[in-house]
């Protein structure tokens, strides 16, 4: 189907000829988007703004061998208090959330007087309780408000008083609130904690300060300032960085995370909606824990908030063939939902479409409305499967799901899957299978060296436009140096040129938390307060925020023999703007000639953004500005020369005058 080399030579030969009048073609208006996977602590401890780690006491050794219900919690008994801490399951808040902590306060110490008050153990609020260490502690800022909540129930004859505080590493109280647990039923208690000063190593302390026994669960602390101030919301700085990119779509909740490494931890969307205390937590395939606090409702809401189309990926009823200790290329690692459960599974897929788009009077539309979103989410795309091994089990299940969606929801574009390129047979088998079924789009993935992206920039020129279209759902060059980002920029100009067959594309992975990274090349690195935007982020942003829906060829003339030079020109019909992307991946500056005579009424001044620097330059959390885009205004005319700096991407956006 794909004959790369022959086409590469043809394209080179064609572009070496004299430039003639520009012709154009419609391209996908949703070409560049984002792929969010809960990998590298991207969700819990990352984009999801919850500050308490293991808030529901649901961590287990299955998540990670050394983890348990009290991971990230410490038992404390300040001022010679004593009692006990247990984890119980007899009477949980909800069966989906079985574990909770039980504090028994037998004796509350008395702060010493006189000389005794100087004994370190005599300092602080006396009581029996727990301290949460957050995800590598918590950052609080002076004057900022934090929304605290917990579920609690009185297990003794008498009510129990609790003191909740934010404390710095020396035990200094930065904010405090008191509450009394006086119901034998589980109730939610809330408080607002305002930090008196900044601390980047804050803990949350809950102390029982009267004798008695109390159950606590779903202990939560959110900054009041979440993205768009949403409840159960997202970390404002990270979410804003993604919003700034203006992505056309967001694929979620992951690649391998979506199909899981066994039937036990496939991502089942219904487990992730509704009140957080009722969601089903589970082991994350990437070796940590998934609270599902950032669940389907939050993903869809975020897409809507930033104007991106939602692209949920559901398992094709088979799990990952490569992980969970079942790495047996050959197929035996893949687990399949039994055929007698497929009717229910297919219904689960159809229910998602109803949940997203159905009227409030439909069963699942009503659940969306009850969660606070009566209007539909306008779902257009559903991904089925991720890099699955193309086994008979996969084929049988995919077809059942695909046929059911097509029959009931012809308005939905189903995106199928092929194995990763170029390793293994599943890429070729997946394509053949998808084309036979006439699946509208398939999801290709590849991670390669930068020079691969330069050499293979003609890849899609050869794709048959009459077959399944492409969603390039995951790609990246191995590295976060400028040379990596520029190789991706060269490739992205080719994606625009082929935007009539490549309908969507997204870099991967997106987010990575310092010290919790499972995948070394990522777009944005972060810790609890800082972010590091890689050159790859800047390149992606320049393409996502400057997409078009019409592609023009022959606008830019360059030395056609130099494959490190690339360019594209698109028009954004919504604004009428003409957008040029000029890439130089070489070591010397290069001249490009731009001919805009095909366009009428162009403004003479344009917005220009340039990313340039040394090939080896990279940003870090400590030095995040080694590479940063430079914005300016430039004069443009019908015909002009542009001198593209060495190792650079330039985007020029020109308004058309009405
Ligand atoms: O992006 C990281 C992983 O790479 C994805 O989970 C998977 O789809 C691919 O193998």
UniProtKB/TrEMBL annotation:
<dbReference type="InterPro" id="IPR017853">
    <property type="entry name" value="GH"/>
</dbReference>
<dbReference type="InterPro" id="IPR010720">
    <property type="entry name" value="Alpha-L-AF_C"/>
</dbReference>
<protein>
    <recommendedName>
        <fullName>non-reducing end alpha-L-arabinofuranosidase</fullName>
        <ecNumber>3.2.1.55</ecNumber>
    </recommendedName>
</protein>
<dbReference type="InterPro" id="IPR055235">
    <property type="entry name" value="ASD1_cat"/>
</dbReference>
<keyword id="KW-0378">Hydrolase</keyword>
<dbReference type="Pfam" id="PF22848">
    <property type="entry name" value="ASD1_dom"/>
</dbReference>
<dbReference type="InterPro" id="IPR013780">
    <property type="entry name" value="Glyco_hydro_b"/>
</dbReference>
<keyword id="KW-0732">Signal</keyword>
<feature type="domain" description="Alpha-L-arabinofuranosidase C-terminal">
    <location>
        <begin position="473"/>
        <end position="648"/>
    </location>
</feature>
<dbReference type="InterPro" id="IPR051563">
    <property type="entry name" value="Glycosyl_Hydrolase_51"/>
</dbReference>
<comment type="similarity">
    <text>Belongs to the glycosyl hydrolase 51 family.</text>
</comment>
<dbReference type="Pfam" id="PF06964">
    <property type="entry name" value="Alpha-L-AF_C"/>
</dbReference>
